[in-house]
Design brief:
The protein is mostly beta strands. The protein contains three helices and 15 strands. It has two domains: about 5-70, Ubiquitin-like (UB roll); about 75-195, no CATH class.
Length: about 200
């Protein structure tokens, strides 16, 4: 729908004119020359809304948006080493909305699972490490020594593969913003496997 008068919006405090009030995150990033991997926020009272590249929003005069590079997760040698992960075994996949998928290769499981080495995928939310990760995925799918799939698992397509999702959640208060880190979440995952179910 075209408007007779252009709509004035602000992206990163700079004024832009648009003819169509319906825009996607990608079209707004293109308008303001923002890299597609950056996170775009629509300023709202309270908490700003993340606008993924493929999401449509309807804008009006005076709306404000801002962007920021994907969160700096500090993917240095020290952080990965602290979590027991050599850097050559860690791959980061930027996803829409500021999410990052961390894939750790050659992740060893305790005895009692087949196979006992897998790829481990952890979804890191835009606010990580202040925001807690939730659930985890392995490839290929694993079975217990009795040949059963572990409890609360299902299949999910992610980054071109069928992963086995563990619908498993941290206990309330277990994740402490400003204190908890990647190594803590990996320890929790290892504890889940040690239950052998």
């Amino acid at each position: 729908m075209q408007h007779e008068h252009p709509i004035h919006i602000f992206i990163n405090k700079k004024k832009y004119e648009i003819d169509n009030p319906v825009q996607t995150g990608a079209s707004l990033k293109e308008l303001a020359s923002i890299p597609l991997n950056d996170v775009l926020f629509f300023q709202r009272p309270g908490e700003d809304e993340v606008i993924p590249n493929d999401k449509k929003i309807t804008l009006k005069n005076g709306d404000h948006l801002h962007s920021q590079p994907p969160a700096d997760y500090g993917w240095g040698v020290a952080l990965l080493a602290d979590a027991g992960i050599p850097t050559e075994r860690a791959t980061l996949h930027p996803e829409a909305g500021g999410w990052q998928f961390l894939v750790i290769s050659d992740f060893q499981l305790p005895e009692g699972f087949q196979p006992n080495r897998v790829e481990l995928l952890v979804k890191l939310p835009p606010g990580f490490p202040d925001a807690a990760p939730d659930m985890f995925w392995v490839y290929p799918a694993v079975r217990t020594i009795s040949g059963m799939s572990p409890r609360s698992t299902s299949n999910e397509q992610l980054i071109g593969k069928t992963w086995q999702r563990f619908s498993w959640h941290l206990a309330a208060g277990a994740w402490k913003p400003g204190v908890s880190e990647l190594r803590d979440f990996l320890r929790c995952i290892s504890s889940r496997f040690l239950r052998m179910d």
